[in-house]
């Protein structure tokens, strides 16, 4: 992961909801792949603004408590080396959501900016 953590799947990590990250998948005999995981503002933020007059939203926004990570959890189907097709993201039921390439193209620019702000990658990478 862009956070420096490693594991052998299946595994689970508790991660900060306020940080974007990149999760790299490597398995012998399969093409390596990565998935951008994006920190997104959650719907509870709007409730905090209405109920708390904005103070709760400022606190939750500053510490990432108002955010959630997407996708969460991250399930992918890798492609064997020499195999056809593309790696795909799966939902909790194992159904295909979209290709990993489509997902990364959709959120990639925002996540790369977030990683730059966190100092995880150099600007312009």
UniProtKB/TrEMBL annotation:
It comes from the Bacteria. This is Uncharacterized protein. It comes from Qipengyuania vulgaris. The lineage of its organism: Bacteria, Pseudomonadati, Pseudomonadota, Alphaproteobacteria, Sphingomonadales.
